[in-house]
Design brief:
By secondary structure, the chain is α+β, with helices and mostly antiparallel strands. It is built from nine helices and ten strands. Strands 4, 5, 6, 7, 8, 9 and 10 form a seven-stranded mixed beta sheet that branches. A three-stranded mixed beta sheet has the order 1-2-3, sandwiched between helices. Strand 5 and strand 6 form a beta hairpin. Helix 6 crosses helix 7, helix 6 packs across helix 8 and helix 7 packs across helix 8. The longest helix has 27 residues.
Length: 296
């Protein structure tokens, strides 16, 4: 009787344990892991099928599972730093446990793996963008004239601009995109803001990432822009934006917004405008433009 009770209690406790699975999302990473003899899968499609089956089984058992992006190069570096044998399943388990805390992850909620994979990759890109922008802001140092932390000042400036943009936006859901062009690549951040009868909700992590990228563009005066699309039931979508200029935002004309949305980026060919969309000039943000950032 006692033995049966113990097994029952262990089953109950097993449901209390949250798990993390490190997922190889593409064929290239899968092939990189095949160099380890202890990694026994030889077909990526079959591997994904087994992963999906395991996720579904755990969900049916009431277990919560987090899916993490498994990077073979980062794994090899981790093993070198920790003095671990990379060709050992326990080393992969330890690396996956670290990913649960530091890496891009998503909860498994019963969605098809075909939906989860691109979402996980997008999450990884978001995190990498934020980390890179944060690092560049930190490297700016202090203003030679006044001693103020340039990165912190730019972040405060970007936060103020974002508040003004949202306060002056028309009612409805808003989708904002900020892009900053510079070596070695263009950084892009997006922010989704839901507005239900005046109840505004946004993801704090998205807002932090968006503000950081905007701050980097302001601080470095890199070419870039910010566009917003506001959608409300029964009304045309409104699209407008600004270019980043001299530590601030310069309004785009309605024609410039139209050209940006109705021109193919690669070919330069015209694209038919969307129906029920107004391309317009942005509202006045009601601010006094700063002097030129920290160019005293």
């Amino acid at each position: 009787m006692t033995h049966t009770d113990s097994r029952t209690m262990r089953r109950v406790l097993r449901r209390e344990i949250a798990g993390t699975i490190g997922l190889l999302t593409d064929e290239h990473d899968f092939r990189a892991m095949r160099r380890y003899r202890s990694f026994t899968f030889d077909d990526h499609a079959a591997y994904l099928k087994h992963v999906e089956g395991l996720l579904r089984t755990r969900a049916l058992q009431g277990s919560h599972t987090t899916v993490a992006l498994f990077d073979p190069e980062e794994y090899a570096e981790f093993c070198t730093q920790k003095g671990l044998d990379p060709d050992n399943p326990s080393s992969r388990t330890r690396f996956t446990a670290r990913l649960a805390v530091t890496g891009p992850t998503l909860p498994y909620e019963g969605q098809p793996l075909s939906d989860l994979l691109p979402a996980l990759v997008d999450e990884a890109v978001r995190q990498a963008t934020w980390e890179y922008a944060t690092t560049l802001l930190a490297r700016l140092g202090d203003c030679a004239s006044c001693g103020e932390d340039l990165g912190r000042a730019a972040f405060a400036r970007a936060s103020d601009l974002l508040v003004r943009i949202l306060d002056t936006a028309p009612p409805g859901n808003r989708h904002l995109v900020c892009s900053v062009t510079g070596p070695p690549e263009t950084l892009v951040a997006a922010l989704h803001v839901a507005d239900t009868d005046g109840d505004v909700k946004l993801d704090e992590t998205e807002a932090l990432e968006f503000t950081t990228v905007l701050a980097l563009g302001l601080a470095t005066e890199s070419p870039g822009g910010l566009v917003i699309r506001a959608s409300a039931p029964g009304n045309p979508d409104r699209v407008y934006g600004w270019r980043l200029r001299a530590y601030g935002l310069e309004p785009l004309t309605a024609g410039e917004v139209f050209d940006a949305y109705c021109t193919d980026v690669e070919s330069g060919d015209l694209i038919s405008p969307e129906s029920n969309v107004d391309y317009c000039e942005p509202p006045d943000l009601g601010e006094v433009r700063p002097a030129q950032g920290h160019n005293h």
